[in-house]
């Protein structure tokens, strides 16, 4: 080929390539209702789907507990490196925060948790947990895979993003408040809104659920040591019996919900453990009780009343009581409250992606999620993505028989991407209206 011809040929080729690339990505700028389906097509392609499945299985084989997710974190970083996404790490020991887009405001965040549970997997399959006594039984392996799938698609469209998508891979959701630590280490810096998605076998495959306002309760724990004076069980007058005191305390604690709470405001006080004594004929020196509280409102007051009831009831029975509201360093969680505008956006994305009937209005439950810390700090939205298939009977989360229906992964990735892209688009259009008003 002559040099001139070669020059012309290569110019034409480059122009064609440019046209192809721009027509491929321009749909983000087009009809907003088409965006979820376009991303779903992309997420279902072998390039994205097989990749997500591979990642999920790899994480499933090597489950790591809260703040120990070193290999999981390394895997996330190496996959982000491969697709060219910049990130900050470590955040909160093992956390990773990726950034895709302009690097400028507005910033919108997508969150996945990374930790496993201290459960021995009972499912026999090719990619069963290789670590005895540890298992991904809450689907967090799937959450990481879906967010990486979203990262891959967002990275392909990074030039069309009207702001920056922040990918939050957080440690220690299961009881160790990883989200709180991520926030303390600046995960939400400049971020305006955040979305979280949890896989669930509570709802069928093809359904997604959330609600506006309170969706999950705040939770906390308490432990108390009631101390008296032990002695012979047949000579109680020479003892100060902590067993009777503890029994009275357990009953009195039940009045906090039944007698002091508005019946229309849901609260739970459960005493779930009582330890004391180990002989039939000996009154012990002390008894330890412990339990959990759940509430949507008035959390601090409830904690205060628990402390009062325990210490004062102990006094009635001539005992002393010490109360710990953070036993074993367990943090309390605020309730998870969904922002109304983000909830509306989620409903529309679900409708566009899964059809008119796919959205389920979730009734609030007394379970908790540490996503609540994010949603407390900035507008946030937490949702559930169903994956139940009655013919296969997937077990509920935190069960040793728990399984993830991997067919759900492209839907989760597409929801993540659509929520972020649509948020940025809406924000840009609002800003342009505001600035045109400013000009007037
Ligand atoms: Zn869990
Ligand atoms: Zn979970």
Please give a structural write-up.
The protein is α/β, with parallel strands linked by helices. The chain folds into 2 domains: 28-214 and 335-439, Zn peptidases (Aminopeptidase); 218-329, Alpha-Beta Plaits (2-Layer Sandwich). 40% of the residues lie in helices and 23% in strands. It has helices at 3-25, 35-44, 46-61, 70-83, 140-156, 178-184, 242-258, 299-316, 340-354, 371-377, 409-439; strands spanning 86-91, 95-101, 107-113, 164-170, 191-204, 208-210, 213-216, 218-227, 231-232, 267-275, 282-283, 286-295, 320-324, 336-338, 359-361, 380-388. It has an 8-stranded mixed beta sheet with strand order 1-2-4-3-5-16-6-15, sandwiched between helices. Helix 5 links the parallel strand 3 and strand 4. Helix 2 runs antiparallel to helix 11 (409-439), helix 3 packs antiparallel against helix 5 (140-156) and helix 4 packs parallel to helix 5 (140-156). The N and C termini lie far apart (59 Å). The relative contact order is 0.17. One zinc ion binds at residues 138, 140, 173, 198. Mn(2+) binds at residues 138, 140, 174, 198, 398. Its cofactor is Mn(2+). Keywords: Hydrolase, Manganese, Metal-binding, Signal. Belongs to the peptidase M20 family. GO terms for molecular function: hydrolase activity.
The CATH class of the largest domain turns out to be: Alpha Beta
Ligands (ions, cofactors included): zinc ion
Instruction: Give the name of the CATH architecture of the largest domain.
Output: 3-Layer(aba) Sandwich
Radius of gyration: 26 Å
Return residue spans where pLDDT drops below 50 for at least 5 consecutive residues.
Answer: 15-24
Give the topology string: H per helix, E per strand.
Answer: HHHHEEEHEHEEEEEHEEEHEEHEHEH
Q: Determine the N-to-C terminus distance.
A: 59 Å
| Approximate strand percentage | 15-25%
The secondary structure category is alpha/beta
Mean pLDDT: 92
Number of strands: 16
CATH-defined topology of the largest domain: Aminopeptidase
- Across the major sheet, the strand order is 1-2-4-3-5-16-6-15
């Amino acid at each position: 080929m002559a040099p001139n011809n070669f020059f012309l040929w290569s110019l034409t080729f480059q122009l064609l390539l440019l046209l192809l690339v721009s027509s491929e990505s321009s749909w983000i700028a087009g009809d907003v209702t088409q965006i979820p389906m376009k991303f779903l097509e992309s997420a279902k392609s072998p390039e994205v789907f097989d990749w997500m499945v591979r990642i999920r299985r790899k994480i499933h084989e090597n489950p790591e507990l809260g703040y120990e997710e070193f290999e999981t974190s390394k895997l996330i970083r190496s996959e982000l490196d491969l697709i060219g996404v910049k990130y900050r790490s470590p955040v909160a020991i093992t956390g990773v925060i990726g950034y895709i887009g302009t690097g400028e405001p507005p910033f919108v965040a997508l969150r996945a948790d990374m930790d496993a549970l201290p459960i021995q997997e009972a499912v026999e399959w090719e990619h069963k947990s290789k670590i005895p006594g540890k298992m991904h039984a809450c689907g967090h392996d799937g959450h990481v895979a879906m967010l990486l799938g979203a990262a891959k698609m967002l990275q392909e469209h990074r030039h069309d993003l009207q702001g920056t998508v922040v990918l939050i891979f957080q440690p220690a959701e299961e009881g160790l408040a990883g989200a709180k630590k991520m926030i303390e280490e600046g995960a939400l810096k400049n971020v305006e809104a955040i979305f979280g998605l949890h896989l669930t076998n509570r709802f069928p495959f093809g359904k997604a659920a959330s609600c506006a306002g309170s969706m999950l309760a705040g939770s906390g724990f308490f432990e108390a040591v009631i101390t008296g004076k032990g002695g012979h069980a047949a000579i109680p007058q020479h003892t100060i019996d902590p067993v009777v005191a503890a029994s009275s305390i357990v009953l009195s604690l039940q009045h906090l919900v039944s007698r002091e709470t508005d019946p229309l405001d849901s609260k739970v006080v459960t005493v779930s453990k009582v330890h004391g004594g180990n002989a039939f004929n000996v009154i012990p020196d002390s008894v330890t009780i412990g339990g959990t509280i759940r509430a949507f409102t008035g959390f601090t007051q409830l904690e205060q009343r628990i402390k009062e009831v325990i210490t004062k009831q102990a006094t009635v029975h001539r005992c002393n009581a010490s109360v710990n509201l953070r036993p074993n360093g367990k943090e309390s969680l605020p309730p998870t409250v969904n922002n109304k505008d983000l909830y509306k956006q989620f409903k529309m994305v679900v409708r566009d992606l899964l059809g008119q009937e796919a959205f389920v209005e979730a009734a609030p439950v007394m379970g908790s999620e540490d996503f609540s810390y994010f949603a407390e700090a900035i507008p946030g939205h937490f949702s559930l993505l169903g994956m139940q298939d009655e013919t296969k009977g997937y077990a509920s989360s935190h069960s040793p028989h728990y399984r993830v229906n991997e067919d759900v992964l492209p839907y989760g990735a597409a929801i993540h991407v659509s929520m972020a892209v649509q948020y940025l688009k809406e924000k840009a259009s609002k800003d342009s209206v505001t600035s045109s008003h400013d000009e007037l």
